[in-house]
Structures are given as C-alpha cells and as structure tokens.
Amino acid sequence: MHFADSLTKATTQKSPVCVGIDPALGKLPEGIAKDAKGLLDFSTGIIDAVKDIAACVKPQMAYYEVLGWEGMRAFWETCAYAKLQGLLVIADGKRNDIGSTCDAYADAYLYKDSPIDALTVTAYMGSDGVKPFIERCMKNDKGIFVQVKNSNPSSGELQDLPVGDETVHEHMAQLVSSWGMSSLGKESGYSAVGAVVGATYPEELKYLRSLMPHAIILIPGYGAQGGTAADTKAGFVNGNGAIVNSSRGIIFASKGKDWKEAAFAAAKKMAEELKAAM
User: Fold this and answer.
1) Top CATH class, 3-277
2) Would you call 9 a catalytic residue per the annotation?
C-alpha cells in the first residue's frame, strides 16, 4: 500500500502519535544493559508499550550507530520487530548526497522488503539529493520526510534567512510540495514526500501547511522541547495529514522498573491531548 495511505489509515485507527526511540545509553532505565543487547531490549520494550496507541515509531539511528556494527544490528532488529507489531517505521537518519552515493542510500533503506517504511532526508544539495529517494518511494511504497523547519532554537540561522520575498524554509516547503505531486496516494490524497516542521514554531507551521497541502507533516518538538498539542493543530487537515513525535517524554517517562508502564501512560496521555486539541 502507498506509504501515505498506510500512515493515514494507521493514524485514523490509532492516533497521530509517533514515538521517537532515542535510546541514549546514559539514560537507559535500571536493569537495562548499556550495550547493544540493552539497546534492543529497551527498544522492543518501548514498542510493546506503545504499539496499541502509536501509529508509528521513529528510531534515531545515531544512538545505534554509536555502538558500531552491533548497534546497527540492534537498529535493524528494532525496525523488524516494530513491523511485526503492526507499527510503521520511520528511520531518522537525515540522509543526503548526490549521484551514485544518493542511489546507494536510497537502496540501503528503501528497498521493497525493508522493515523501514520511511526515511528522514535533508535537501540542502537540491533536487539531485532527493530524486533517488522519491524514485524508491514510488517503486517500493515507501516515504521520506524532508527537513523544512526544524524544532531546534538555532534552525533560523539558515532556515529563516530571506530569499527575495520568502524565507529559505518557505522556499523549501514549495519544493517539497512540487516534488510530491507525482506520488499522491489514491486513498488519502497525501504524498509519499512528507515534511518535518517543528511544533515549537506554530505560526510557521500554519503557513507551511498552506504551502504543502498534500504533504504529511512530521511534527517534532512536542513535550520535552516545549511544544504543546495546541501548537500542532495547524499541521492537521480535518484530523489527518500529520503525525506528532515525542521521544524523551515517552521513552524516559520513568527510569525505574516501571518504565514500560510509564511509557504506555505517557503515550496514552499524548494521544488524548492531541485528540482534544483537534
């Protein structure tokens, strides 16, 4: 099934909650080993806790890469386990390059039977660094999320710079919209080319939604970074078209033995808050 159709179906059946799995070794709860096995145990435990609430999970690759090949094995096993539990998987790797290198990145993560459903990418190199990913999306029913307006405080150092009568992030949004027009889902009407826009910039989110009517927006910055359910509302269209990510606020809701129960409770609370805000 087309990625945007699958994601829209999942958010309708469950919630627009996306749980970021950022298993920083120094923050793992008691009883979890600080090694690759511990990463996998923690990641699968979080998946078990949130699988009935969240539409998708977003493993952050850096926390697995730091442990070398063993960590990357844990990453792929985490993705495969999430798929078995009925979750969509967004690999947060922010990949980008050109030519054959970009082709290699696209083939590495977005092949037909990959447990990864979508990949985060950057587009600073322009369309050459995005088209290979889009081609794999269309061929293999996968998706990408392009960085447009990030949630961190310094994102404006580049993304808010004026370019004529618009800003860099506004121009990027228009590119994302145009790139996605060839990959619209028949059921949802949304594109396989999504966008990342932070909840910490609600006014920008409102305008960027108007520039990208067919893009599913991945909204980070909820919870620990200060974004609220109300801040995310502008990213949705009649309750669809967006997913909201929370990482630390869910996966590290407790560092005690009740960490799974705490993650479930935090995800449930988030889903309820988003529903109320809609």
Assistant:
1) alpha beta
2) no
